[in-house]
Amino acid sequence: MKKVVNRLIQCILTMFIVSILCFALTKAAPGDPVLTYVEPNMSEEYIANLRESMGLTKPLYEQYFIWLGKILQGNFGNSLMNNRPVLTQIMERLPATVILMGTSMVLGFLIAVLLGLYSGKNKNGVLDKITSLFCYVGISIPTFWFGIMLIYLLSVNLHLLPSIGMHSEGDRSFGDLVLHMVMPCAVLTFANASQYIRYLRSSTITEMSSDYVTVQTAYGMKDSGILFHHVLKNAMLPMITVLGMSLQSLVSGAIITEQVFAWPGIGQLAVTAVTQFDYPLIMGITMFTALLVVAGNLLADVLYAVFDPRIRKGSC
Amino acid sequence: MKKKVQTVLLALAVSAVSCTVGFPALAEETASAAAGGNIVIAETADPQNVNPLFVVDQTSFDMQQALYSPFFEIVGGEMYYENGLCESVTVNDDASEFTLKLKDGLKWHDGEAITADDVVFTMEVLVDESQNVPYASYGYVNDTPVTAEKVDDLTVNLKLGSSSAGFLGGLSQVYCIPKHIYEGVANIGESELNNTPIGSGPFKFEEYKSGEYFKVVRFDDWFNPVNLDSITYKIVKDSSSANAALASGDLDARLISADDYAAVSSYDNVTIYSYNSGRVNAMFLNELNADLQDVSVRQAISYALNKEELCQFAFISEDYADPAYSLLTPDTLYYTEPENQYNNDPVKAQELLAQAGKTDLSLNLMYISTDKTMESEALYIQSSLANVGITINLLPTDESTFKNKTKDPECTDYDLVLSFYTLGEEPSLYADMCYSESRSNYSRISDADLDALWDKANMTADAAERGEIYSEIQNKISDNMYIYPIAYSNGFYAVNKKFGGFEDCLLKTIYYDYSKIYLAE
Amino acid sequence: MRENIWKNIKLGFKTNKLAIAGAVMILLLALISIFAFLYPVDPNALSATERLQLPTTLHPFGTDDMGRDYLARCIYGGRASLLVGFLAMILSTVLGIVIGSISGFVGGAVDAVLMRIVDALMSLPTFLIMIVMNAYLKPGIQNIVLIIGCLTWMNIARIVRGETISLNEREYVIYAKISGQKTTATILKHILPNIMPTIIVAATMNIANAILMESALSFFGLGIQPPTASWGSMLSNSQRYIQQAPYLALFPGLLILLTVISFNYLGEVLRNVFEPK
Predict the structure, then answer these.
(1) Which residues of A touch C165 (CB under 8 A)?
(2) Which domains does chain A have, with CATH numbers?
(3) Closest Cα of chain B to A277: distance in Å?
């Protein structure tokens, strides 16, 4: 119990530190954020008034504390660009990102478990060679290139799938959503799976040479049984770490993929926020991300103990 | 002076004749004409604010033109009333009083009538300091605010503090906002009312989904026939996938750049409309840099460059851009080609540099990193100037840092900077690019004589006199090589073949009359 | 111990043909980059008339959108990319291993503090960090290596820590701790060799990551400055011509793929060296 409380306090502290660091970063960028909105024929008074209405004339620490005060009351403030509430904007985009990233993570994981375990078991076999090539390509391929190639192939040339966006004009049905999701999901799953497979395969190879595997085989236990009941549990360790770290992508999105497929996710929103130095929006998104990072790593730490009994009885 | 009134009256006569079609007697005519249909137009970002008095980004500007109607347009130097709220605009002898007469029977999207009260209200908001309107300068002449006076329900008198020949050019960019919606609102720019705009244009607001689209539907009570049922502005940031979407039919229209031209012209379901975008691409020479304060150095830089080749290299084909010699566009009133055109002469360039004692210069050239055209310009300039002994360090910068630095009057991070601007047909609006202490004066020119010329030209009502002053301005800038204009580039609108009417829709540069688009099949 | 390692490496190479291929490939790429100046064509020579040409005998890899010879740009580009890829990978891997292993091994308060720092850094928007760092650091290979290295070490740290924790409970580690062996020694002798396979996987991915990140950086004007070529900037530039000239992305992409594969094959040798059989 004490450990849980301890960890929770650490998490809150971390998020607090993240907010300070992020604020400092946003303000560290040299230049006057107001100038991003300046066009010819605008008067100096207008610019000065704009600066003030954005709250940028106050001293930095005051700006931070005003922001902090609002956040503790659940008020994320208004975006500088379009004056709409930050929280509303994040919530609008969140479902799109979660659906896409979540599906890719799950699919990637499932593919990785199958391919990773089997290719690790039969190291240097045919399956292993093919899978490894698949992974190298997946790690090296730039997502934007792969995305655009898919669009040209499947959408423009073959007319099988819609090219961009999340929904068709006036059609918000589930079937339509799935069609739109096929390509961006394929791109992300390919990238994710490649990573997961490499780790899983590596750990599987290590595990396969362990004593218990030899013992189990000697006792006549089926290969798949050994694989899924014993090896998987032990080989999962680095995978858990990676999955834990990937949790944050549920709210930070995949910037490039979202851009290529015009997917209305948070990744796009974040990039726009940064390029316009829209600090309330940047801070809002970062706080969400921080929450998920902290939660993800916490979850990973907890799962280490679940999967590896040796750790359970140790510290942590 | 008389000539001015005559021109205006002539324009009125011409437009009165051509406007009778779209005039009052509405009921039957505005019933949905032609085929209906929905067009999907690509935008590169989410709109920030569609309230016409507070629009600062291109996306919002595009949408504003579907939602709101201007008072009038100035097309080809003439007053154009077809898609405007006004029936006529009369000017008094010394251009200090303008009378706007509204068309009869105009309606806001919620059914309320558009009257002189709305016009007066808009003009008051424009100059109201507490509202902080970005383009308030259009409501001021010589620091005196314009006063608006209601004459009757359809007529408004605008009184200026002093003569302003360029006033109408600015006024054409002020769009009317409804009094019954915004009256009493303390901060109109930040009001939530802007999220559900009530306008006067051919289309009314329907729905906005963040990151996805902004949808507008036909306003049946608009004073002219509107063909389409609706317009969906789809938000697509990436230009490669937008092109693909155009090919696959998921997008119907988008603005493309010169690099896209070759690819898009191969799509057989798309037509490309080339139009004069009114954009001036130019290089500015920062006089905060001591080396560039010497006019011979600036002239040397100009002689070192071959403008035709530079244009061809950066804009791919001669069809896509014309070499520019003046800071005004050929369509701007009183445009003249400066006498000194600095034909490419590297030898002369080197001589000038030697005379000035600056044979080993090293200069920073800043440009927007994601802009392909600018990168091409920069690389070409770098290699040309290397031939005369000037070393150029390229400074590709991300867009917002770029804006920050160029709008900062004390920034010395760049010596040369590439930029572009689109300011329209009214020459006085170009003053900002070289007026002392203006933020948009990227060359940081501080020439009191030049400033005086700009002021004088704006006060002069006589067309011939104005023409002379502007000619002097253009020559002065060219002789002193304050600004190096590069090209007047074309814009390209790629549209799916099933839609027609784009030639009529593109009034000029970035001004659209969306009511003209129709589904052709 | 030393002789053992060399013996194992030699054995690894002998038995694993792929490892040899990998080593040869990397050597080849490195040599080509170093001796780039031997190739007679100027990678920065602009030409308005020869834009976007398909590969021909004159231009074996074709030309890009500014008429520059693509083969020359690929060769010279290798310099920047291989340097960035390897150096950034080394920086992030070393940092990650050091922090991760100490954190996992020592545990307790040290672990908590270090991991919370990692959490905090992972939450910050990468793009924002890039823009700010770019504003203060002059563009150049060192700073790009620094930026990329500092943005990617956290992942390795987490993975190394996870593995270290599980090894903590192994008998020989507990024995080493009890018998008073110094922390550093224990880590180096017992922990690291056993997590080497995972580290290699992570390191390989980091090379690809580093080169692709450089591509993303240059897309926003933050990477290797034009007109200098780098596979990353060539990739990001190829995006707009994907339909007209797909080879613009293909060539640098294949080169990156080759680099990643060869490094990984080399890595397999290392795994065999440290793997307790």
Answers:
(1) 304, 311, 314, 316
(2) 19-72 (no CATH), 94-313 (1.10.3720.10)
(3) 8
